[in-house]
Amino acid sequence: TGMNIFALANPASPIYISGYNHMIGCDPVAISGDYAYVTIHQGNTCRGNLDQLDVLDISDIFNPVLEKSFSMDSPHGLAVTPQALYLCEGDHGLKVFDNRDPLTVGDKLLSHYDNFEAYDVIYLPGQTDILLLIGADGFYQFDVSDPLLPKEISYLPVIKI
Q1: Non-local CB neighbours of 114 within 8 Å, separated by 6+ positions
Q2: Which of 42, 66, 115, 137 could cysteine-pair with 48, CB 3.0–4.6 Å?
Q3: Residues contacting 146, CB < 8 A, separation 6+
């Protein structure tokens, strides 16, 4: 039913700090700076009835505030950096948004890779920034050293037996 914030001073015993409630749905959350990005999608076992990206101000972790909602096609997993938001949209593929202004992120689509299904993504910063993505047909790696223009560097197919 929402996003929850926990203190992890003792990881074995997390302490609830605050939360943000929304419509019922499975909702991955990604954080960048003072903002939390929450996706909600419909048509799943979580009984979701919306397809949207919510941007919440979490500068006061005791009082998260919804700042903006953006309609999406079928948002699933996401990864976020101060420059880019990478959004998996199931059979709609991967979308890359300009995140330099979090309150307009959903209006600034930069690129759309729709030649595969995309369900979850992990951003790995480092010497070469890497984006790991799982889709219906396999596992992809993208070089995102230019965060606004991902380049596919490898693909490992997954075959159903």
Answers
A1: 92, 93
A2: 42
A3: none
Q: Which of 57, 59, 27 has the alpha carbon at shortest distance from 41?
A: 27
Round to whole Å and give the CA distance between 80 and 78.
Answer: 7
- Nearest residue to 85 (alpha-carbon basis) of 64, 50, 114, 54: 54
Q: Are 51 and 39 in contact (CB under 8 A)?
A: no
Query: Which tokens belong to 7?
Result: 């203190």
Buried b (16+ CB within 10 A) or exposed e, 96-108: bbbbeebeebbee
Three-class SS string for the chain? Answer: CEEEEEECCCCCCCEEEEEEECCCCCCCEEEECCEEEEEECCCCCCCCCCCEEEEEECCCCCCCEEEEEEECCCCCCEEECCCEEEEECECCCEEEEECCCHHHHHHCEEEEECCCCECEEEEECCCCCEEEEECCCEEEEEECCCCCCCEEEEEEECCCC
Task: Grade residue 41 by pLDDT with cuts at 50, 70 and 90.
Answer: confident
Predicted pLDDT of residue 150? 87
Radius of gyration of the chain (CA): 16
